[in-house]
Amino acid sequence: MPEGDRGLLSGRPARRRRARRCPAWYPATGNRRQATDCKRVTRPVNKRRNPRLEILHDDDSFCAVSKPAGYSTVSERWDHDRICLIDLLWSHWKQTDSAAPRPHVVHRLDKETSGVILFARNAVAQSKLRNQFMEREVKKSYGALVKDLPDPPRGTSIFQVAENPARPGSMRFQSNGKECITEYQVMEAYRDHCWVEARPRTGRTHQVRMAMAKLGTPCICDPLYGDGQPLFLSSFKRGYRKGRDAEERPLLGRLGLHALSITVRHPVTDDPMTISSSPPKDLAAALRQLRRWSRA
Question: I need a labelling partner for 237 at 20 to 30 A (CA). Which of 162, 170, 193, 277 fits?
Answer without folding.
Answer: 277
